[in-house]
Design brief:
The protein is 69% helix and 8% strand. By secondary structure, it is mostly helical. The protein has a domain at 41-128: Arc Repressor Mutant, subunit A (Orthogonal Bundle). Helix 1 packs across helix 5 and helix 3 (60-66) packs across helix 4 (71-83). Keywords: DNA-binding, Transcription, Transcription regulation. This is MarR family transcriptional regulator. InterPro entries: HTH_MarR-typ (IPR000835), MarR/SlyA-like (IPR039422), Tscrpt_reg_MarR-type_CS (IPR023187), WH-like_DNA-bd_sf (IPR036388), WH_DNA-bd_sf (IPR036390). Residues 14-146 form the HTH marR-type domain.
């Protein structure tokens, strides 16, 4: 594998970009973390509930990969949310090996109540950017993420 050579300016820019990205991510994430804690969830639990609320039932394996969690963490979070009656597990009738997580009525009702507030808080977190800038940032981050992921497998 041959690596591209970079100028000192390109190397310094990449490091500064990473630091800026990391600080911005931490700052914006704090809004979501505060919001989840305010509602009695840790950030991972809230992320699982949000995924099920916005995307519908999910295979347990998909939850882990979509939220970048290891399977042990997924099991722990699912167990806790199920114990508190926010979600339930359901076996796929077509494939007995596949188990789905879904929101209970209690979970859906609760998310119906709190999700609009969460959405407003996230909009507020990004309010320093115009709509066009937010769309550009999203496109650039997707492009950078796809390219970076691709490089991992070269």
């Amino acid at each position: 594998m041959r690596m591209k050579s970079y100028t000192n300016e390109e190397l310094e820019l990449a490091l500064n970009l990473f630091k800026t990205f990391a600080r911005a991510f931490k700052s914006v994430s704090e809004h979501s973390i505060r919001d989840s804690k305010e509602h009695g969830f840790n950030p991972t639990e809230f992320s699982v509930l949000e995924l099920l609320y916005t995307k519908g039932p999910q295979k347990l394996q998909q939850i882990g990969s979509r939220l970048l969690l290891v399977s042990g963490n997924v099991t722990y979070v699912i167990d806790k949310l199920e114990k508190n009656e926010f979600i339930y597990r359901e076996q796929d009738p077509k494939d007995k090996r596949s188990v789905y997580a879904n929101l209970t009525e209690k979970g859906r009702t609760y998310l119906d109540e709190i999700y609009p507030v969460h959405t407003l808080r996230m909009a507020r977190a990004f309010s320093g950017l115009s709509i066009d800038e937010q769309q550009q940032l999203m496109a650039l981050l997707k492009k950078a993420g796809v390219h970076s992921q691709h490089l991992l497998f070269r």
